[in-house]
Predict the structure.
Amino acid sequence: MIPPKKKTGPVRSNDSSKMDEGGKADMPRHRLIYEQLLSEIQSGVYKPGERLPSEAVLCERFQASRITVAKAFQSLQREHLVSRRPGSGTYVEKPTQQDSLQFGLLIPDLGTTDIFEPICQGIMRSPDAKFHSLTWGNSLGHGGDRAKAAEQLCQQYIAQKVAGVFFAPTEFSDTRDEDNHRIALRLEQAGIPVVLLDRCFEPYPKRSNFDLVGIDNHRVGFMLTEHLIESGAQRIAFAMRKNSAPTVAARFAGYREALYTMREGCAGILLSGEFEDPKHVQKLMDREKPDAIVCATDLTAARLMQTLIALGIRVPADVKMVGVDDVSFAKYLPTPLTTMRQNCAEIGAAAMSVMLDRLAHPGRAVRDVLVCTELVIRASSMDVTAS
């Protein structure tokens, strides 16, 4: 049963029409009901031609209003998964005949970056994916081992002649550029369509030959910096790990643009290195003296926050912090983290739609499909009274 609604904050997370269940952060209630019914239809709990429970029964089951349940039914109807029969009820439609395609998921960093599992789930749960199969693969290991495993998986997909590959280029390794280019070239030479997830592997201003689904990272960097400026921060730094993906460079560019336009040409402060090393972090703080930090990701923010606390630097009393992603642990950090939320499930669903569109229109120009983000304000960036 879906739990009661939680109040979590306005563009902060206190929209009472949303709630949090099993990692589906603040998904609209009717969408949660839709996803549960969709899962039950796909798994055979309700078979083609079978009648679904009435709205009244579902209202009781999900503790939801009739209007909310009706919205879930309408979503299923729009996707031709169910049909209404006046005076009789709602029935599961029999699937139309359609070619089943096999796609590959090539995500070297799966398991090391929290956003990719929900993106993959979004791909699999997309209504567009219901006739098709997805082959999972992850590249376990570190550094060269992960790169080697990713190349082996790439060759496997080529041998299987998959219809397309969803590829999330790796980051952080010193050889990431060569590794990503090698995989991309092999898939391109094999004539396999590729949809990039979250990031391109080419540094700006270069652009790959593949469609990409992600977020507007430049805008994300700008908005987070703008939020800190409006909260009263005077000396704002940007923290990032070495060899980060081009998405982080775009966030840094947005950060600098916000400073330039709102602080009359301020160039900004870049913090990098090992944020789990207290000596290194103390040296950075003594030298730069920031009173606020835009972190490239929530994971970077978490590592840096733990070190700052160990050094006796208070968040947010001494230093305000923000991150990007709104991963599952962000609100459970010692000081709950203000962050820019990515809708990972929507990224996954959009990726499947883009892939099928690419197969139907192979000559169409490559494109970036950008999913909207939401600023979630928590304690890490709020004003507090120093004790």
